[in-house]
Each structure stands twice: as C-alpha cells, then as structure tokens.
C-alpha cells in the first residue's frame, strides 16, 4: 500500500512527492497529462523558491538547461527607476525563469529518482472513503484501465480547478474578485534582464528564459479582458509601447518567435488545506493573480511544509496529527504575500506610492529591501513599516 498518492506531477505535486519519497514514504504520483508539456506561466521563480531547488539538489539541472541567473531586477514607474543587486535567500541571489517543460520534468524525474512511482496519462476519477475519511483513490491508468488504490493520504496537487478539492468539499475562503488578465509571448535577439514596468492599469514584465529567449508579458485590468481578447496581439504590443517605449524599441530589433499565450481566468482564493486522509498543495489549495509570480515559489513552500508535517516514515507523527498541523500552519506561510498580491494586482499608481518609491530610490539599502519584499524574503509588513510610510507623506 502507498503511504501517499499525489494527484498532479508539476511543481507542487512533483516536489511534494520528491520530499515524501526522500523521507522514506512509498509514494504514487499520477498526472493525466504527458511529461514535458508546457503550461501557462511567466516562469519566474523568486529567490526563496530557488533556495528550495538548491536544497533539493535540482538547481544544477535547471542551471544546466541554459536559463540565465536573474540577479539584477529593475522596476520602473513614472519617473522612478529602481535597480540593484537581487536580494539573497539562503545564499541564493539569483532568480530563474526556466520553461515549464524544463522545470516540471526535472522535478518529476527527481521524484522518481528518489523512489516515487510517477505515472503520466493517469487520471484521478474519485475517492475511496470510509465515513468522512479519505482512504484511497480511483483512477484510470494510461491503458484506460480503472484501478483503485488504498492509502492513508491523498494529496491534491491538481491545479486551480482541482477535482480532489471538489471531491473532498474543501471550503474556499479569503476569496477575492479577479484582478488582471495577462498576455505574453517569447522573443529572441533581445538583450534583457528581469525587468518590470508599470503605468496605471498596466504592467509589463520581462523574464529571460531558456534557448536565449525572453518572455515578455503584458498585464491589463480584468475589466479590459473582453475588449482585449479579440485582438490580443495588437493590445499586447500597444501595452508594451505605451508602458515602456524603450523596451518596445529593443523588441523591434529582435523577433517574436512564439504565438501569444494569455488568460483572463486567474482566481483568488484559499481552500481548506487538509482534512481526514487528504491535503491540498499548490494551486489546488491557494490560487492568486499571477502578476506577482508567486505560484511556483508558494507551491514549493507548501510542499516543504506538508512534508515537514508528515515527517519521516519511521518515527513520524500519525497522519491525523500531521494533517492537523498542516491545516493550522499553512496559511501563515501564504497570507501576507497573498494580501500583497491582491494589492499590487490592482495596478494602481497612487501619488502616495510614488512618493514612497522616490524615497526608496534614493537608498540602495531600501531598494534591496524593496526587492526582498517583492520576492517574499521579508514580509511586506516588515518593509512597509511605520518608519517608511511617513517618509512618503
Ligand atoms: C499567466 C500566468 C502566469 C504565471 N506566472 C507565474 C510566474 O511567473 N511565477 C510563478 O511562480 N507562478 C506563475 N504562475 C502560477 C503558476 O503557474 C502556478 O502557481 C503553478 O503552475 C501551480 O503548480 P501546481 O503544480 O499547483 O499546478 P499545475 O501546474 O496546474 O499542475 C497541476 C497538474 O495536475 C494534473 N491534473 C489535474 N487534474 C488531474 C486529475 N484529475 N488526474 C490526474 N492529474 C490531474 C494536471 O495535468 C497538471 O499537470 C502563473 C500562472 C499564470 C496563469
């Protein structure tokens, strides 16, 4: 019998499986997709996420894939231009933006090498239950055969529309209306770093990735989605041109090498993290606007927390105790950055914010702390303190 069955083999599921397998547990991982496929994402992994990849011995594989270290962020809005060395998390100063068909298979392979039984083309269909308790999973394997497995722990790592969350009836809370919509594409022949640009209601981000390509993303307010989606390419270029004419000029010297990708469907919620015999990690348990690029890093933090709660196979706590701890502690690692995402994704540029950014711009120390707060290295409330806020008034 498996000690845990994980549904979903991308950044949340594969990393949870990797950690549980390394702690001695027998783990089955199922994903209905094929290995090595792409998915909607602007790819950016903040330093705390990179620190987890280093700790799990998979960072070297990501570096070898050819995506460059992003160690000098820039952010421009109005007359303000913040730049400086990237902040450090556990000795890691660089962020990375690996393609998802690079990152996710590296994690799934590392889970398999750690002893997890990773199977693609396998779809979770339903739960086995005894009363309120989840006791196993019914799934269709890659040959179309429907199978059942008993297990004391089913982990939903199956994304924002999680069927495991639905099946267990996980409650949604801290729900917020959708805030932005995003379009992006890939360019080659354009020298760039990790760059962010803002004007009221608009945001542009640049993330260098594999194969000497850069991802250029344009964000709009959610209420613009219906207007934009019919002519996404045109609105995308127009957003870049108006938000950052210098980047637009740089792009003219390069080439757009892939189609447009985009979505107006970015929900904001938390779901109950765990119950008897089940837990949720990654987007299945918490989804938010992608503007602050926190989904992958948050998936790693949740995977790490759940694995810590479950503990080692020999001498660890009971599954019930582990899940109670995960249930009661998970939000403490997510809430403050969730609040800050909801605030940033409003895409407001207030005079008060500009005054504060002008103060920050004058100080390399404050600039580094600004980027550390954006990366989730320090809590936003520890940066926007009572000392800083009056300086802007
Ligand atoms: C436009 C956009 C840009 C983004 N940019 C960033 C960014 O720059 N940085 C960042 O950190 N995050 C970003 N994110 C968020 C990030 O992509 C997600 O947070 C992350 O992919 C969540 O990983 P996950 O493993 O929880 O879920 P997913 O990546 O959604 O994986 C879920 C897996 O579950 C599988 N699955 C689903 N149902 C079943 C089933 N019934 N049976 C078997 N398998 C199943 C699916 O096949 C899938 O492989 C972005 C998101 C969007 C939409």
From TrEMBL:
InterPro entries: FAD-bd, FAD/NAD-bd_sf, Geranylgeranyl_reductase. PANTHER family: CONDITIONED MEDIUM FACTOR RECEPTOR 1 (PTHR42685:SF22), GERANYLGERANYL DIPHOSPHATE REDUCTASE (PTHR42685). Residues 2-328 form the FAD-binding domain. This is NAD(P)/FAD-dependent oxidoreductase. It comes from Kibdelosporangium philippinense. It comes from the Bacteria. It holds the Pfam family FAD_binding_3.
